[in-house]
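Exercise 7 asks you to align residues with tokens for two separate proteins.
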Amino acid sequence: MVDDFLFIYSLTKAGIFAIILVLLRGDNIMGYTLDKDGIKEENMRKGLEKLKELGVKKWAIIHSPACGYGLNCQTGEFVKVPSFKLPKGFIKGTTGAGDAFCSGVLYAAYQRESIEKALYYGAITAACSLSKEDSTSGVMDLKEMKLFMKTNV
């Protein structure tokens, strides 16, 4: 938990992005609450607004296994992009899926895409990473990942 906060703090000090990987474990983080049933979706915008108050200048993003939530801190746009519904047996390993989500978001930011597209890139990268036992083999070029998901999900 402390490491997550320090990670968020270091990114918000840079004033560009904040990405939180939310684990379903009952923690209170930045003004929104998780409980035994998972994320309380009605509090997502409030949590993202809190990150903006802490100094995030462009995007604040919260990722959970079920969904990615984003706030464009410059325009106030709130976006929700669900994770892919994966078929039974698709998931071979979960190591690195959160990191893969982050890499998809950062790639979209680098390409100057919208926050909605960034959450989609994060979701597709995380989903592809779940298709292999290790943390990197499932992650491919974006075009290949789109084709892979189209043919396998």
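Second protein for Exercise 7:
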Amino acid sequence: MTERTIEKAVRDYLALRAEISRVNAEAKDRVANLKRTQHHITDYIESQRRALGVENFRTVDGTAFQQEWKRVKVQDWDTFLAWLVQSGHWHMLTKAVSKDAVLEFMAETGQMPPGLEYEHGFEIHVRKGTK
């Protein structure tokens, strides 16, 4: 059995990272192509649904049906925030904080904002060398 060295461990790690990257890129491309094909199929099903005036199609393989979706995006944060403060509809916000802003506050004040918890740790990373 070959003895592992740091040099070999770093080389092996970088080779695995490159392979993972290659496989992920290949998978991303394949999935994008598959999703494009799915989209073409759903376009066809939708056109047939409209043409026939039906709500759904039942087949031995499954059922195709229309389902409503909704999306909400902030277009003007300042306007929305002013309305939020005035109206008190705070339930419309999600509960999250900006890690960067909290770390900046901690660096400036030496204090943690109340109600938050801070954790940190270390992990090994491997960077490819220049040859």
